[in-house]
Design brief:
Elements (H helix, E strand, L loop, with lengths): L1 H19 L8 H7 L1 H27 L3 H14 L6 H8 L3 E7 L14 E9 L3 E5 H4 L4 E5 L5 E10 L4 E6 L22 E6 L7 E15 L6 E8 L11 E3 L5 E8 L12 E5 H6 L7
Antiparallel strand pairs: 1-2, 1-4, 2-3, 3-6, 4-5, 5-6, 7-8, 7-10, 8-9, 9-12, 10-11, 11-12
Helix pairs in contact: 3-4
Length: about 290
């Protein structure tokens, strides 16, 4: 009887809540279609592919179409209906190749810390033996360089090459993970303003963090924060980057690296993002390692 009474009170409570709750607004067909546009497009493509397959199958005896021809046609139709990759897809693709880079003013065997500031930035693995691209200003003057891989493994690294005119440095990690993956590089040829890009790195040491935007311009010039160099032929973009993103990859939605983030424009004394970032094209960056991938 006790359980029945509890259920009865609960039922009355639900009835009372239902009676006082505001009525749900009616969803029009146009609103429903807009909300489910992506799914409808995908399933519409699947249905079209199946209808195409059925049509080809019926025509097969008369036209000499083989089952393999039908399967190929259906597969191509399905591939054409795949949804475009997202920033989340790009992040998942590049993450195993992104490293946190730290430059210390103290040598590894120093007994007493100098009290100097540790420099922090980002790097990207471009050869699976532990070769890493980053910005020169991230490691410039450092007595010790450390990198942290995506799985948490920490390793000392040595500077093996520099390209000051492009603010690039090449590192070699002394220890690497067993499952280290090199990033896929893509030529910047054919890139256009307005195309989507994604930046992955460690802004202010926080990360890995991801931000998305578009290419704002090509062939830009940028004077480094210390005023000592003018970098040329840069990719301008508006994905949010801040100190710590330097040396990180600028990638396409497919996860391919098209540039190395090198700076942000800020006319004030506060080093914060205002919508204009710059990246060195990957052709220049690959040249610093002696690679010719394109």
């Amino acid at each position: 009887m006790k359980k029945a009474a509890v259920y009865s009170r609960s039922s009355r409570a639900r009835t009372a809540i239902a009676a006082t709750a505001p009525a749900r607004p009616r969803v029009t067909f146009a609103e429903w279609r807009k909300r489910h546009a992506r799914g409808l497009k995908l399933w519409g493509g699947v249905a079209a592919a199946l209808l195409l397959g059925a049509f080809l199958w019926m025509l097969a005896p008369a036209k000499g179409v083989t089952p393999a021809d039908v399967e190929y046609a259906v597969q191509k139709a399905l591939e054409a209906q795949q949804p475009p990759p997202t920033a989340a897809d790009a992040y998942d693709s590049i993450l195993p190749s992104v490293v946190h880079v730290r430059g210390s003013p103290d040598a590894p065997d120093a007994d007493v810390a100098s009290g100097g500031e540790t420099q922090t930035g980002t790097g990207v693995v471009i050869v699976d033996t532990g070769v890493i691209l980053t910005n020169l200003h991230v490691v410039h003057g450092a007595k010790r360089i450390q990198v942290v891989f995506h799985d948490g493994l920490e390793s000392d690294a040595v500077l093996i090459s520099v390209q000051p005119e492009n603010d690039l440095a090449v590192l070699q990690a002394k220890i690497i993970p067993d499952d280290l993956y090199a990033a896929t590089l893509r030529s910047t040829a054919g890139l256009r303003p307005g195309e989507p890009v994604i930046a992955v790195g460690f802004p202010f040491g926080i990360g890995p963090s991801v931000s998305a935007g578009v290419i704002s311009g090509l062939g830009r010039e940028y004077q480094t924060a210390d005023g000592k160099r003018v970098l040329t032929n840069l990719i301008q973009f508006d994905a949010a980057v801040n100190p710590g993103n330097s040396g990180g990859p600028l990638i396409t939605p497919e996860g391919e690296v098209i540039g190395i983030v090198t700076g942000l424009l800020n006319p004030t004394e506060h080093r914060v993002f205002i919508g204009i970032g710059f990246a060195v094209p990957i052709e220049n960056a690959a040249g610093a390692v002696g690679l010719s991938p394109f």
